[in-house]
Amino acid sequence: MSTGPGAPSAPAPNSDHDTVSDDATATASARGTAPGIAAGPAAPPRKGTFSSLRIRNYRLFATGQMVSNTGTWMQRIAQDWLVLSLTGSSAAVGITTALQFLPMLLFGLYGGVIADRFPKRKLLLLTQSAMGLTGLALAGLTLSGRVEVWHVYLVALLLGFATVVDNPARQAFVSEMVGQDDLRNAVSLNSANFQSARLIGPAVAGVLITAFGSGWAFLFNGLSFIAPLTGLLMMRTAELHKVDRVPRSKGQLREGLRYVSRRPDLIWPIVLVGFIGTFGFNFPIWLTAFVYHVYHQGAGTYALFNGLMAAGSLIGALLAARRASSRLRLLVGAAMLFGALEITAALAPSFWIFAALLAPIGMVGLTINVTANSSVQMATDPLMRGRVMSLFMMVFMGGTPLGAPVVGWVTDAFGARIGFLAGGVVSLAAAGLIGLVLARVGGLRLRIDLRRGHQHLTFVPRAPEGAAPSGEKELAPAA
Questions:
Q1: Phi, psi of 393 (to 5 degrees)
Q2: H/E element holding 168?
Q3: What pLDDT score does 41 carry?
């Protein structure tokens, strides 16, 4: 990653390894209208879905994360249900979620500076240990029968502070384990790992909560961090890809913000995931409200809903792992479809129609996350990756403290369906507007062709003034 203005080492987004190629960016580069967006070579041949797992260090990392992620999902289900049981309020669930992500909003960029400055493996040993301790603390309070809602709020806040450093360090550490060639595949497999755990964790949590209470799910989560800590300790440091650490100096935070502000291929995906993360990903609020208030079911149904979303997300992650490139056109299209699906689910007339829509919502939501994540990582200079990814995660997750209380209040005041509908409308509108902005930045316009055998909707370059429209050259369709 570039270390500031004029740094000659910053790779173009579409270098030999970086294939963030889309219609808007390619055209903008050709016309010279958007510096920092470069047209690259054709997409590389597809790799195997699990190609990153041939690397020993990454296998250790992925195995540990699988166990830990299962515990994390168990705690999420147990935490949401515990708060709802203690208060009966969707807004209280929203406050818990907001507190967990508030540190990311306030201090997320500083976490990226720390991740760029210190060895990431050592940082992860510290942050993963701290996150395990929060789970054990909540388990002790719950199993002793002394838990109160403010305890859950406090633990959520402490977990959020650990996440401030853990997230950018973990995101940037992937490239050190697998190198640039396998980075996109590893990012997708990380998401598949997380979503596979999401299939197991909620199911196990539902059984534990129903049979024994929430405390045992918290205990499992605390102990599950032994696995990633063991994996990190067993890694062969000599096999890690060397990345120069950024020396301590003034202005590193502003430097990262300036770097992103000059790159339309970075800033607009980050803005889009910010809107969707703030208003479209409030599933703990909506799903608990639908289970509790609309369908009058228990924790098992809540686990079922999360499992259905996880199944769709896992499919989306595995498809993303096979994809050779990450196109902004795919990101915008997936975001628009995501909003439309949320609107449809909010208006679903029956339990089973609502449940059936959760899998495609999960699949498209995961496509948004992976496409944006890999696009941003591949287009960023390694020396800036911690700061850029901290901004990405701050916007994606840090918007939750702003959105979750609002969405929780709307859900409580107007009902679960209106709350879910509002999130879908905002996501759809944001995707449409940002899609138009990207097209304009890239010098594109939408062409409609209703003739049989032709692509009906196509983005094509704007014809220069005085040029004949017939001379337009259609851009390649997205992969």
A1: -70, -35
A2: helix 149-178
A3: 42
Spatial distance between the Cα atoms of 12 and 467, rounded to a whole number of angstroms: 30
Element holding 429 (H helix, E strand): helix 416-441
Average pLDDT over residues 207-232: 90
Q: Measure the CA–CA gap between 322 and 15, rounded to whole angstroms.
A: 20
- End-to-end C-alpha distance for the chain, whole angstroms: 27
- Determine the pLDDT at residue 30: 40
Which residues in 157-183 are b (16+ Cβ under 10 Å) and which e?
bbbbbbbbbbbbbbbbbbbbbbbbebb
Q: Mean pLDDT across the chain, nearest whole number?
A: 77
445, β-bridge pairs: 460
Lowest mean pLDDT among 246-255, 374-383, 459-468: 459-468
Residues 36, 58: Cα–Cα separation, whole Å = 31
Cα–Cα distance for residue pair 391/105, rounded to 1 Å: 9
324 pLDDT band, cuts 50/70/90, is low
| pLDDT at residue 186 tops 50 | yes
By DSSP bridging, strand 457-461 and strand 444-448 are antiparallel
Strand-pair partners of 461: 444
For the chain, the helix, strand and coil percentages under 3-state DSSP, each to the nearest 5: 75, 0, 25
Structure tokens given for 62 = 């992925």
d(CA 116, CA 165): 10
